[in-house]
């Protein structure tokens, strides 16, 4: 197996079928630089076909998850005109697309600032766990900018009505409100409880067959915008393949024999 890519802005820790990815620019509240975007995309591309990696946990070093885009990159792009700004902005959108469609389960652990691009990353997670004091928001309009790449993912996550209110007021809100909006699934009071919740959710993920999880995730995402009839036809084909596949055979046999399937051991 090829080693994981070398990174300067990320800390990578593979452990027991889980890849822990820490955004590692604490001096900038883990603001998303172009280099960090590129490294995240490279890591995701490197692991997406690795069946041994069942889940990715995305978190921040220090006290914050991610405070949004790096304004220094924007200042550097100014000399190159609008094309440079388009490229910079679209690269982050590509990251969100790729994260959304990872076959692995993507878990985000959200502390401190969860703003702009950090907010977008939370919106493409499969499981989001927040500390109650985390600060969420889309501050772009207060800076005279647009939440251009994250907007579609925010709408998908929390709905158009709430997305409009949050984007057009640049409002800040905490973990409890994020849970009420449906942005996060769990809110914990401190770092210890946050860690315990993460371990509990990972243990549940690892009970599930990786191939079945990947196919199910793809089916759920497709259900948002594909016609129902063709989608159900494809789902039936996928189900038949799963029943006859390695995981389906092992899962059924394990149930009959009253033991854990191989992937859960």
From TrEMBL:
Enzyme nomenclature, EC number: 4.2.1.57
Family annotation (SUPFAM superfamilies): ClpP/crotonase
Key words, A-Z: Lyase
Gene Ontology terms for molecular function: isohexenylglutaconyl-CoA hydratase activity
GO terms (BP aspect): isoprenoid catabolic process
InterPro entries given in the database record: ClpP/crotonase-like_dom_sf, Enoyl-CoA_hydra/iso, Enoyl-CoA_hydra_C, Enoyl-CoA_Hydratase/Isomerase
Pfam families given in the database record: ECH_1
Superkingdom of source: Bacteria
Family designation: Belongs to the enoyl-CoA hydratase/isomerase family.
Name assigned to this protein: Putative isohexenylglutaconyl-CoA hydratase AtuE
Organism: Pseudomonas fluorescens (strain ATCC BAA-477 / NRRL B-23932 / Pf-5)
Gene designation per UniProt: atuE
